[in-house]
Specification:
The protein is α/β, with parallel strands linked by helices. It is built from 9 helices and 9 strands. The chain is 63% helix and 17% strand. It has a 5-stranded mixed β-sheet, sandwiched between helices. Residues 4-12 have low confidence and may be disordered.
């Protein structure tokens, strides 16, 4: 069994060098984490998160520098001569004073980048708001065109009906009473070429020249969710419901999805196609309920739009993550 002196001669150096190794490794990992935080903050345009990550990075780099200096110091001639350890309070203060200018430069650079991100986010928000307003105007023109066609056909229709539930809100562009039941129409006023699959969450929009404009939510899946929301709203009132995506713009849809989209000029014959044999009393009741919701919809507009913005923001955050 080794003596106490032998144990101390073995464990003593390990106990002395251990904290130095831990400090160097921990600060190095902190710097790496800070890099990831900063990169993610830049992608998301978050100035506050970037600044926090930048500060952690400065602390990590300085701490790693001190830790490695302490490792190099251990067992060296200066240590044997009684020179203070780099991890002592006095030496850390001297290190900070010696590197005061680079640290201040790094802090200033981080603040400038954060200000740039904040400004970029403001500009981006303004541009996004402008695009959203333009998209709304174009969408309103398309919806007005569909509403005019429904009026010409002579079918009872409700427009921009907002349904609400526990934690959700949905807007139905058009709800039409047809002989077979209730048709839910989702109007899209788009240009260029739309590509995608019926089951893909996102479709791709391209200009006439083939340049990708961006992604848009799958309109078929979107309207299926609207149909499900209406079914949930009616509950045990089993009125037949079907949904159609209506194109009110000049967009050309890829063959994979073209058959799922109806043009405005085809609405008369599409809505005349029977899809069920409804109970007239059930259909009358369901329609009265919807008329009641349509009356209340204007007062729900602000709340619904706020909910929709939160959903879009969460969706963008998931794509950037």
């Amino acid at each position: 069994m080794p003596s106490d002196a032998e144990l101390m001669s073995t464990l003593g150096p390990m106990l002395e060098i251990g904290p130095r190794v831990v400090l160097a490794m921990a600060c190095g990992l902190l710097a790496l984490v800070a890099v990831r935080i900063g990169a993610r903050a830049i992608r998301q345009g978050s100035a506050g998160v970037f600044l926090a990550g930048w500060a952690l990075g400065i602390v990590g780099v300085c701490g790693a520098r001190i830790g490695f200096a302490s490792l190099a110091f251990y067992g060296s001639l200066p240590m044997l001569e009684g020179v203070p350890d780099p991890i002592s309070g006095l030496e850390i203060w001297r290190f900070l004073r010696a590197y005061e200018a680079p640290i201040a430069l790094a802090v200033g650079a981080g603040v400038l980048i954060a200000l740039w991100l904040h400004r970029g986010r403001e500009v981006g928000a303004t541009a996004a708001s402008s695009r959203e307003a333009r998209s709304r105007r174009i969408g309103a023109v398309g919806e007005a065109r569909v509403a005019a066609e429904l009026k010409r056909i002579g079918l009872p229709a409700l427009h921009n009906v907002i349904l609400r539930g526990a934690g959700w809100s949905v807007e139905l562009d058009h709800v039409v009473r047809v002989p077979s039941g209730i048709a839910v129409l989702e109007t899209k006023t788009l240009g260029g070429t739309i590509e995608g699959q019926l089951d893909s969450p996102v479709w791709t929009q391209r200009t006439v020249g083939g340049v990708e404009v961006g992604g848009l939510a799958n309109s078929v899946l979107q309207n299926q969710a609207h149909v499900s929301a209406l079914q949930g709203f009616l509950g045990d009132l089993r009125a037949p419901i079907c949904g159609y995506v209506v194109s009110a713009g000049r967009a050309r849809f890829a063959p994979e999805i073209a058959d799922a989209v109806v043009s405005v000029r085809d609405l008369p014959w599409v809505l005349s196609i029977p899809f069920a044999e409804p109970n007239p009393r059930v259909l009358d009741t369901a329609w009265r309920w919807l008329e009641h919701e349509a009356v209340k919809s204007p007062g729900r507009r602000a709340t619904h739009e706020a909910y929709a913005r939160r959903r879009r923001g969460a969706s963008r955050a998931r794509r950037l993550a």
